[in-house]
Design brief:
heterodimer, A: 540 residues, alpha+beta, seven-stranded mixed beta sheet, four-stranded antiparallel beta sheet, B: 340 residues, mainly alpha, 75% helix
Chain lengths: 540, 340
């Protein structure tokens, strides 16, 4: 059969039009399946959420993104769990703890030896028993393995594998070099969750003795969830772990984390009801969403510290008076109202109000341009030029930079605002190349000594300003090694005073921990790493 | 023809080698330390150095280049510093999504650009031509980021006609069994038409965003090529003999304009493959463009190399294919000018 050329051309055109039509028609037709699939009818409802990043790695000791920390933390359980306050719009972790995998845990009289007895009959997802050997293997893996949580161990006096011993099937003994309340806090963090030694042994290789490759994309959960489906490019679906020790702690029927990279689209999906909770939305958008029916903004105070740092070995910031003058010029209230739309509180010092040992008697900086000018004049410093660097991914810092530039111009400091790609910022900050920079830092475990040590101890990884003060180092280290609450208060006050006097950084604000949720979503829970705990989320 | 094919193949291989060299050198000019970025500020210098060493980043650049080229010959594109996975795995996990989007975008571009270009040529200098030219100017000026936002806002958020920007399938839906990685096709091949249907729905908006802008380029090329052939002797002769206008348009003008049009299609497809970074991010489309965007943020040189190399190689293969089709369409090319 032959078809004329003109007829064949018309056929091709018709086929093309049909394809285009189907593309458009298909898009406009029948609604998508209910999120969460066939679980939606169960009593505990599944949720769909979208966080500020995608889940890159499932290993709680190797994760990179915040979403991965939340996810991997749901695939492991710790000995102990924080207790939470229900007073505000969210449940917030306290400094008190309760047993999780542990049936009991006891300290020796000098509080250096911790003996943990596991509950009876604990199992991993695959049904294999969870024993003291798994606990020791997991903690030693943290110390010697592929992750970077090993930096936390010395803070609680743990430096070698022989400090962890399995006494029998259910009993573990941890012997620390010194007594510290930070040990409880750390053991309650997700990176200290228990992994399966058997899975690790099964999948280890000569080049990978801790099975880093396997744990990166697989789980044998000891936590409240197991991985139901994981596509590193688009989403992860977590289902309740049937072998979890306490099913009552899981308040939902599972959680899907959808990776939506553009925050504006995340907000639209929330408004349309496709997702139940969104994190990482631009704050101006959050403000607008407050007015939208069906949505609730959950915004809790946080201990995350946003600061302006200086390289104290670079002139003119090697002069404490110059740093103090900058601190006196910053528009702290404007930051809160115009940069953070009210979703933050002005900084109350390096150790924020609400964190143990915060000293309210230590002075705070307030904007006083006349005083700032006088401070500079008294120091004999002529007007100068400098740069202000920050990560270009941070819209908040970009906005704050403009206000800082404007305020410092008033006292004769000309600032060139310099947003840097994140990796370049990290590299140059680590190389101590930035004269003035913005950054943020969270002291895990709600611990003041962790916070001050991480930021300002000599040689610390986050001490981008080359600051070094032997007195501060000694006070902070003593604080780490002190268990007495009164003595910790005294030491912390001394450290806070040194930091105020020398002003190696300026605490600018503490941004709130902010989520937007659909009405009916409850149980938003912030732990002491300021991460969301998925198992407490519920949906009416 | 065989000589022609081998000559084109040789040129293509040399271009791939050149591309590999350029990509390798360019990504090393970028500032930032991928190892430090991966481990974070808490990591010690020793850990960062160890990671650098394990990825060969501590070696002199010439040694790194040698290792890189040797690895390429073995199909090893290196390890992504930011995720620890093989770059080839990362790329091939996402390439089907990008290909599916680029193909759909090309279909949209052709379906709009081709008929409008032909219409403009057929009515050259008259009102339809004017409309087509205005469309081309608007289409060329539309930034995908603006167009995408408007489409999402208008057609998803307000009108609720299209599904939301959550990727390739509805939230919670299991993808069809893997055959090609193109969900629309895989759904049909594995007897799962619902997957194909949903994949088409989620493909629609990003494909229109990509295709609408590209359609302007197709339109302009079809129009100018067909106007040029309209002036040729064989078209005038056909008309003088009374051949119907439609037949002259389809058989004589279009076929003879195809060489230039094919070039345009090759260019447009290459643009759709490599230039959809913004669209993929906006629609949460899990393709290589979004991966490249993230890699840029984390300064993952290995991933950036992989992206540039694979997209560039696809572009070269595409051009090679277009060259072959030239040969089929125009005997003067395959015979090296002997036919004339």
């Amino acid at each position: 059969m032959s078809i004329s050329r003109s007829r064949r051309s018309r056929l091709i055109l018709a086929t093309g039009l049909a394809l285009a039509g189907s593309l458009i028609f298909s898009a406009c037709s029948a609604a998508a399946p209910e999120p969460g699939g066939d679980d939606s009818t169960s009593e505990k409802k599944p949720l769909v959420i979208s966080l500020d990043s995608s889940v890159d790695i499932l290993d709680p000791q190797q994760y990179r993104s915040r979403a991965a920390m939340v996810t991997s933390g749901s695939l492991v359980e710790q000995f102990i769990e924080q207790k939470y306050d229900d007073d505000g719009s969210a449940r917030v972790g306290t400094d008190e703890f309760e047993n999780a995998l542990a049936e009991k845990y006891e300290y020796s009289e000098d509080r250096k030896v911790l003996t943990i007895t596991l509950r009876e009959g604990l199992t991993f997802k695959d049904g294999s028993p969870l024993t003291a050997e798994d606990v020791v293997w997991s903690i030693v893996r943290g110390l010697e393995g592929p992750g970077y949580i090993k930096v936390l161990y010395p803070m609680v006096g743990l430096t070698s594998a022989d400090q962890f011993v399995a006494l029998d099937e259910r009993t573990v003994q941890i012997t620390a070099n010194f007594a510290t309340p930070l040990l409880d806090k750390m053991l309650a963090m997700q990176p200290f969750g228990i992994l399966s030694k058997e899975s690790g042994e099964e999948h280890k290789t000569a080049d990978d003795p801790w099975a880093a490759e396997w744990f990166r994309e697989n789980d044998n959960s000891s936590g409240p969830y197991t991985v139901k489906a994981y596509d590193p490019t688009s989403s992860i679906t977590l289902a309740p772990n049937p072998n979890y020790y306490d099913q009552d702690r899981i308040a939902n029927g599972g959680v899907t984390i959808q990776f939506v990279s553009d925050p504006a689209q995340r907000a639209l999906l929330l408004q349309s009801g496709e997702i139940d909770l969104a994190q990482g939305l631009p704050l101006d958008q959050v403000k607008e969403l407050e007015k939208v029916d069906g949505l609730t903004v959950v915004s809790e105070t946080s201990h995350l510290l946003q600061f302006l740092g200086f390289n104290v070995e670079m002139a003119p910031f090697d002069n404490p008076a110059v740093r103090r003058a900058v601190a006196q010029a910053l528009p702290y209230d404007t930051f809160i109202s115009d940069v953070l739309y009210g979703y933050a509180r002005p900084s109350t010092g390096v150790v924020p109000e609400g964190m143990v040992t915060h000293d309210a008697d230590i002075n705070k900086f307030e904007q006083n341009l006349d005083q700032a000018k006088k401070t500079l004049t008294d120091a004999g410093v002529a007007p100068f030029n400098t740069t202000l660097s920050f990560k270009q991914s941070s819209a908040v810092e970009a906005r704050a930079a403009v206000y800082i530039q404007s305020a410092l111009a008033e006292i004769g400091i000309t600032v060139e605002v310099r947003p840097l790609p994140d990796a370049e910022f990290t590299q140059r900050a680590r190389g101590k190349e930035l004269p003035m920079f913005m950054n943020s830092f969270l002291g895990w475990g709600n611990d003041p000594f962790y916070l001050m040590s991480g930021l300002l101890s000599t040689g610390s990884g986050n001490n981008f300003g080359n600051y070094g003060n032997a007195e501060l180092d000694a006070v902070v280290q003593t604080g780490f090694e002190t268990d007495d609450a009164g003595e910790r208060d005294t030491l912390s006050s001394a450290a806070q005073q040194i930091i105020f006097d020398e002003t190696p950084i300026i605490s600018m604000w503490n941004p709130n921990w902010t989520f937007v949720v659909r009405d009916g979503v409850t149980g938003i829970t912030k732990d002491n790493t300021e991460q969301l705990r998925l198992q407490y989320l519920a949906k009416k | 023809m065989t000589r022609y094919i081998f000559r084109r193949l040789g040129i293509s291989l040399l271009t791939v080698l050149g591309l590999a060299l350029v990509v390798f050198l360019v990504v090393r000019i970028l500032p930032g330390d991928a190892a430090a970025a991966r481990l974070g500020p808490e990591a010690s210098e020793a850990d960062i150095e160890a990671l650098r060493k394990s990825y060969g980043l501590d070696q002199p650049i010439i040694v790194q280049l040698g290792d890189y080229l040797l690895g390429l010959l073995q199909g090893d594109l290196g390890t992504a510093v930011s995720t620890g996975r093989q770059v080839a795995d990362e790329m091939f996990m996402r390439l089907p999504a990008t290909l599916e989007l680029a193909i759909a975008g090309l279909i949209v571009a052709l379906l709009i650009g081709f008929p409008l270009g032909m219409l403009a040529a057929a009515y050259h200098g008259r009102m339809p031509d004017g409309f087509a030219r205005i469309f081309a100017v608007i289409g060329s000026s539309l930034a995908p980021v603006w167009l995408g936002l408007m489409l999402i806002y208008g057609l998803y958020s307000v009108a609720q006609l299209f599904p939301g920007p959550v990727g390739r399938l509805p939230i919670g839906m299991t993808p069809p069994a893997h055959v090609t990685g193109l969900y629309v096709l895989d759904g049909l091949l594995t007897g799962n038409p619902e997957s194909s249907w949903q994949a088409l729905r989620y493909l629609a908006l990003p494909a229109i965003t990509l295709g609408l802008g590209a359609s302007a380029a197709v339109l302009k090329m079809v129009r100018s090529a067909m106007i040029a052939t309209a002036e040729s002797g064989f078209v005038r002769t056909a008309r003088a003999y009374g051949v119907p206008t439609g037949e002259v348009l389809w058989r004589d003008q279009l076929r003879n304009a195809m060489l230039q049009v094919l070039t345009a299609i090759g260019l447009v497809f290459g643009f759709l493959l490599g230039g959809n970074v913004v669209v993929e991010r906006m629609f949460s489309w899990p393709g290589v463009g979004r991966l490249a965007f993230d890699a840029l943020g984390s300064n993952d040189l290995e991933l950036l190399q992989g992206f540039a190399l694979i997209v560039g190689t696809i572009y070269i293969v595409l051009n090679f294919a277009v060259d072959l089709v030239y040969g089929l369409i125009d005997p003067r090319i395959r015979l090296g000018g002997k036919a004339s």
